[in-house]
Amino acid sequence: MSVILKKRKYEHVVFFWEKTQDEEIQKWFPISIKSLEEALKLYQESLKNEALSYGKTIYYGGKYVGDIWCYSIDEVNEKMAMLSIVIFEKELWGKGISTIATKEFIEEIFAKYNLEKIGAFTYASNNRSIGVLKKVGFANIEPFIEDGIKSIYFEIRR
C-alpha cells in the first residue's frame, strides 16, 4: 500500500481534532492546540498567502491516517520552520508510514519555501519519532525539558 500526501480540508481538521483527543496519542505527541475552535482558526490562517504554516494530510491504503505540517515558517530571518507529524491510527504505528510521509514532505517544503533548515522536537521517550527523524536525516541537536517533560530538538539542513 502507498502513502499519499493530500491537501488539508475543513473536514480533516475536525476529524484530526477528534482522533487526537485520545489519551495515548496525547502521551506521545506534544499537541498544543486546546480546542477545536483554535484548530479551525489555525487552519483558516494556513490558507492565507502569507501563512506561517503549511500542512498536508497523510493517506495510507486510501484512508486518512494522519497529518504532517510545518509551522513558524520564517523565510526572512532564521530561514527555518518547525515540523510536526501525527499518525492517529495507532494500529499503523511502526509501519514506516511516518518515514515515507516525512521524507516526501521535507522535499516539498524545501522546494516550496526559502529555508535553510527544518527543526523538530519530540519527547525523549518517543523512540518511534526519534527513529523517523534520524532515518530521514535529522540530526540530534540538544535535549531540553519543557513542562517537566524530557524532550529532544532535531534539525535537518538543506
Task: List descriptors.
158 residues, alpha+beta, Aminopeptidase, seven-stranded mixed β-sheet, 5 helices, 7 strands, globular
Question: Can you put this structure into words, describing what you see?
Answer:
The structure is a single chain. The protein is α+β, with helices and mostly antiparallel strands and 158 residues long. It has one domain: Gcn5-related N-acetyltransferase (GNAT) (Aminopeptidase). It has 5 helices and 7 strands. The chain has a 7-stranded mixed β-sheet with strand order 1-2-3-4-5-7-6, covered by helices on one side. A hairpin with a 5-residue loop joins strand 3 and strand 4. The chain is globular and about 35 Å long.
Outline the fold blueprint.
Elements (H helix, E strand, L loop, with lengths): L2 E5 L2 H10 L3 H6 L7 H11 L7 E7 L2 E12 L5 E8 L9 H16 L4 E7 L3 H9 L3 E8 L2 E9 L1
Parallel strand pairs: 4-5
Antiparallel strand pairs: 1-2, 2-3, 3-4, 5-7, 6-7
Helix pairs in contact: 1-3
* Poorly predicted residue ranges: none
Percent in helix? 25-40%
CATH C-level name = Alpha Beta
Task: State the total count of DSSP E strands.
Answer: 7
Number of domains: 1
Strands of the largest sheet, in order across it? 1-2-3-4-5-7-6
Give the N-to-C terminal Cα separation: 29 Å
Strand content: 35-45%
Secondary structure class reads alpha+beta
CATH superfamily: Gcn5-related N-acetyltransferase (GNAT)
CATH topology: Aminopeptidase
Radius of gyration: 15 Å
Work out the helix count.
5
